[in-house]
Amino acid sequence: MSTFVLIPGAWHAGWAWRPVARRLRDAGHQAAALTMPGLADGDDPTGLHLQAAVDHVVGEVERRDLAAVVLVAHSWGGYPLTGAAHSLAERLSKVVYYSAFVPARGRSALDELPPEFAATVRTAIRSSPDWTWAPTFEIVQRALMQGEPEQLQRFLFETLVPQPGNYHLDALDVPELTSLGVPVAYVLSADDQGLGRPDAAADFIGRLGVEPIVVPGPHESLLTHPEGVTHGLLRA
């Protein structure tokens, strides 16, 4: 039996992991789906920095006194995962990036995006009264959940919450995760278009030096294909 600690991507909270978490529990494992600071419904996102998300992951694992943890992150969640793993190494049995950013030291999430799009996002963050960034419906439709029914796309769009801008602007100053000696895996959605650029997944996987485990579905396959994602995590 493993203990899976599940970190959501940008604009999401622990609810996004529920279909997968339930299947992991049905398979005999423990699963805890976290919500990062500022991303629960009604949270105040003002003034939050990436370190707050890192500290939250560390704090939750330590508060629950979890051991032999499989730490999993979706999408932007690769940032708090990477930062937290360095403090939790002795508690980890494996780290799994699932259609996720694999941070490079000193590079923010926006640094991984095409420059023109990154500039647009920076402008949106700096012009927001609470320094947040929310996705457009077009992003949901074309990048996160392409090919799915519009009713489902709109449901996701209306469920997402604005992300603290500094979560995207801040970079990590930690060594590469591969230096920890903890087993690492990468699970990739077959039709993923949500990592910002066409070659992003190949770059991220290359930073880990692993062969990806491919699961069906778009970037949001944890919602559209939870059975496949669960099998992928169990194989990782």
Describe what this molecule looks like in 3D.
- By secondary structure, the protein is an alpha/beta fold.
- The protein contains ten helices and eight strands.
- Strands 2-1-3-4-7-8 form a six-stranded parallel sheet, sandwiched between helices. It has a two-stranded antiparallel ribbon with strand order 5-6.
- Strand 3 (69-75), helix 3 (78-88) and strand 4 form a beta-alpha-beta unit.
- Helix 1 (18-26) packs across helix 10 (226-235) and helix 2 crosses helix 3 (78-88).
- It is globular, with a radius of gyration of 16 Å.
- The two termini are 14 Å apart.
Would you kindly provide a brief summary of this structure?
With 236 residues, this protein is an alpha/beta fold. The protein contains ten helices and eight strands.
List the helices and strands and how they pair.
Elements: E1 3-7, H1 18-26, E2 30-33, H2 50-63, E3 69-75, H3 78-88, E4 92-100, H4 115-127, E5 132-133, H5 137-144, H6 150-159, E6 163-164, H7 166-169, E7 184-189, H8 200-208, E8 213-215, H9 221-224, H10 226-235
Parallel strand pairs: 1-2, 1-3, 3-4, 4-7, 7-8
Antiparallel strand pairs: 5-6
